């Protein structure tokens, strides 16, 4: 079962991945956007780390929903651009989806991610094929749900979700952008990966900590 | 990267600090959340105008806070939209009960952040309306895409609508006027060089010595296409014709023209562009009734130019001529 402490481990891992890949995300954005995706996401996730507190912090008695809501508010107020409202709205919906639960099982996690996707799609008015983070996120959500439904354990299902997200991100490369700043480039947006789709891949990669994988080694 | 900056993370706040110190009679700012507002307290009940957007476009928007234009501006990080907290706080600071018009440039991030702020403000019972500026003809308009960017037309709209608000027009009429102006203003720009976002430290795109980016926005993003360099007259025509076509300007029409530098263009060159623009319009029987030539909406140190034409009528010209007193635009007082 996944509790608040485990969700925090996920967010710490996500912050770490964003930090490590900050320049890569910004470089992708420079090609078809405005060169700030890595910088903005890193600023937001560093602020999220700040509210997570120390690992031994006693502040673990808050419910998952409260944690997710706090993360949403930090992202909305610190990231700016389009990514702030998009990821912020996704986390707000995740908070709503987990409700009053103290512990989340595998299905809860799948529903949590699915609710986040709906929030992101509504806020950005984007759908599959628009060359946005939705291209990675939507594929990850359906891979996660169907893998769990077929009876695979969480670890394998998350691995499926990650490769689906990567595939979705790869598939943004030949697309013409229909949403976001890259859409101004028209035909010239072809041949480049959408940076938001890659930061979404990392969100699912970090989620491997739900299955006890990929945790940061503080030793 | 060589820039007149201190720490990269302080660029936006130190620039606004300087703006406020240089214009103590005009503007003040609040730090947390961050926004600029008029120094003079409101003596009459009027509709307040609040805008904002990424920084790096100076004087937009902080330079247009003052009598006859904006009541507050929310600066985001460089080329990054402000966040809802800033917009909500700025609106609450300048709303005196007559309501607030949000002026938003059509970029995904700006639209979403202003939309979230709008939702929060409505929940709190504050009267808010929103106008979206999308005047860039370089981008094809479509229901299925983000649509056209908001560029130079924003400056003209803020001046005209600001005058109407100062005249005591109510929120509904102010909004209608803003929509009307937004519907008749079009722009197009080009870049001779890229610009360097301080947090990135290197130019956003690489441009050869003899290459030009045509159809750029204001964020150092690449344009619609890359062309070999041309004389100023040819380039001016390449920018002007799509605007004339889009606005369907014909002989007898009047316009307000803005020839805008992107931050690193000598005024000398902007006048060479204005000279050709005036000639092109005159040949077609279109009269430039009013004009601005200079750096009004920029893209850091980019070399380049944008042309904006607003199809004018008597009402628009009358509001244009009313007094304005901001740090970047001042006449009549």
Automatic annotation (TrEMBL), chain A:
Gene Ontology MF annotations:
glycerone kinase activity; phosphoenolpyruvate-glycerone phosphotransferase activity
First and last residue of the signal peptide: none
Name under which the protein is recorded: phosphoenolpyruvate--glycerone phosphotransferase
> Which SMART domains does the UniProt record give?
Dak2 (SM01120)
The reaction(s) annotated as catalysed by this protein in its Swiss-Prot or TrEMBL entry are: dihydroxyacetone + phosphoenolpyruvate = dihydroxyacetone phosphate + pyruvate
EC number assigned by the record: 2.7.1.121
- Entry-linked Pfam families: Dak2
Q: Which UniProt keywords apply?
A: Glycerol metabolism, Kinase, Pyruvate, Transferase
Q: Which PROSITE patterns match?
A: DHAL (PS51480)
Cellular component, GO, one term: cytosol
Associated pathway: Polyol metabolism; glycerol degradation
Provide the species name: Candidatus Carbonibacillus altaicus
Protein role: ADP-binding subunit of the dihydroxyacetone kinase, which is responsible for the phosphoenolpyruvate (PEP)-dependent phosphorylation of dihydroxyacetone. DhaL-ADP is converted to DhaL-ATP via a phosphoryl group transfer from DhaM and transmits it to dihydroxyacetone binds to DhaK.
Automatic annotation (TrEMBL), chain B:
Q: What's an example Gene Ontology biological process for this entry?
A: glycerol catabolic process
Q: Which reaction does it catalyse?
A: dihydroxyacetone + phosphoenolpyruvate = dihydroxyacetone phosphate + pyruvate
For this chain, one GO molecular function annotation is: glycerone kinase activity
Q: Describe the subunit structure.
A: Homodimer. The dihydroxyacetone kinase complex is composed of a homodimer of DhaM, a homodimer of DhaK and the subunit DhaL.
Record-listed E.C. numbers = 2.7.1.121
Please list the coiled coil stretches. Answer: none
What's one GO-annotated cellular component? cytosol
Q: Which organism is it from?
A: Candidatus Carbonibacillus altaicus
What is the name of this protein? phosphoenolpyruvate--glycerone phosphotransferase
Write the record's keywords in alphabetical order, separated by commas.
Glycerol metabolism, Kinase, Pyruvate, Transferase
Which Gene3D superfamilies does this chain map to? Dihydroxyacetone kinase, domain 1, Dihydroxyacetone kinase, domain 2
Is DNA repair given among the entry's keywords? no
Q: PANTHER family from the xrefs?
A: TRIOKINASE/FMN CYCLASE, TRIOKINASE_FMN CYCLASE
All residue ranges annotated as the DhaK domain in the record: 7-331
- Give the pathway: Polyol metabolism; glycerol degradation
Which domain of life does the UniProt lineage start with? Bacteria
């Amino acid at each position: 079962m996944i509790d608040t402490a485990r969700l925090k481990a996920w967010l710490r891992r996500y912050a770490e991945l964003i930090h490590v890949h900050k320049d890569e995300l910004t470089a992708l954005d420079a090609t078809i956007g405005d060169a700030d995706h890595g910088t903005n996401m890193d600023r937001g996730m560093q602020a999220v780390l700040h509210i997570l507190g120390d690992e031994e912090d006693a502040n673990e008695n808050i419910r998952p929903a409260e944690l997710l809501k706090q993360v949403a508010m930090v992202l909305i107020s610190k990231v700016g651009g389009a990514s702030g409202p998009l990821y912020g709205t996704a986390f707000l919906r995740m908070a709503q989806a987990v409700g009053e639960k103290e512990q989340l099982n595998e299905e809860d996690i799948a529903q949590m991610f699915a609710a986040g996707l709906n929030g992101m799609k509504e806020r950005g008015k984007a759908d599959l094929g628009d060359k946005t983070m939705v291209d990675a996120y939507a594929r990850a959500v359906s891979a996660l749900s169907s893998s769990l439904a077929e009876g695979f354990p969480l670890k394998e299902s998350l691995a499926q979700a990650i490769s689906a997200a990567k595939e979705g991100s790869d598939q943004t490369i030949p697309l013409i952008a229909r949403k976001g700043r890259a859409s101004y480039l028209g035909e010239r947006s072809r041949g480049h990966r959408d940076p938001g789709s890659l930061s979404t891949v990392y969100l699912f990669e970090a989620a491997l900590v739900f299955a006890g994988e990929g945790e940061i080694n503080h030793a | 990267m060589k820039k007149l900056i201190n720490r990269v993370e302080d660029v936006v706040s130190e620039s606004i600090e300087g703006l406020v110190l240089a214009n103590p009679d005009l503007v003040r700012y609040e730090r947390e959340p961050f926004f600029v507002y008029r120094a003079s307290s409101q003596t009459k009940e009027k509709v307040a105008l609040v805008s904002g957007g990424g920084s790096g476009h100076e004087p937009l928007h902080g330079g247009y806070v003052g009598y006859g234009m904006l009541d507050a501006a929310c600066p985001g990080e460089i080329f990054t939209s402000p966040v809802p907290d800033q917009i909500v706080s700025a609106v609450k600071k300048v709303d005196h009960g007559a309501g607030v018009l949000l002026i938003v440039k059509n970029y995904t991030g700006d639209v979403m952040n202003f939309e979230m702020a709008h939702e929060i403000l409505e929940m709190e019972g504050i009267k808010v309306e929103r106008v979206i500026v999308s005047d860039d003809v370089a981008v094809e308009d479509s229901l299925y895409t983000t649509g056209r960017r908001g560029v130079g037309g924003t400056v003209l709209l803020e001046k005209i609508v600001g005058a109407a608000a100062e005249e005591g027009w109510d929120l509904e009429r102010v909004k209608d006027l803003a929509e009307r102006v937004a519907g008749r203003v079009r722009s197009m720009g080009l870049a001779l060089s890229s610009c360097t976002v301080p947090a990135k430290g290197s130019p956003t795109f690489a441009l050869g010595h003899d290459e030009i980016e045509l159809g750029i926005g204001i964020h150092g993003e690449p344009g619609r296409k890359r062309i070999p360099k041309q004389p100023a007259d040819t380039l001016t025509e390449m920018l002007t014709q799509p605007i004339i076509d889009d606005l369907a300007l014909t002989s007898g029409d009047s316009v307000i023209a803005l020839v805008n530098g992107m931050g690193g263009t000598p005024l000398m060159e902007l006048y060479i562009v204005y000279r050709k623009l005036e000639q092109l319009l005159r040949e077609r029987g279109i009269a430039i009734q009013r004009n601005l030539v200079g750096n009004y909406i920029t893209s850091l140190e980019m070399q380049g130019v944008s042309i904006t034409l607003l199809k004018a009528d008597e009402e628009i010209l009358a509001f244009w001529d009313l007094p304005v007193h901001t740090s970047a635009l001042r006449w009549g007082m």
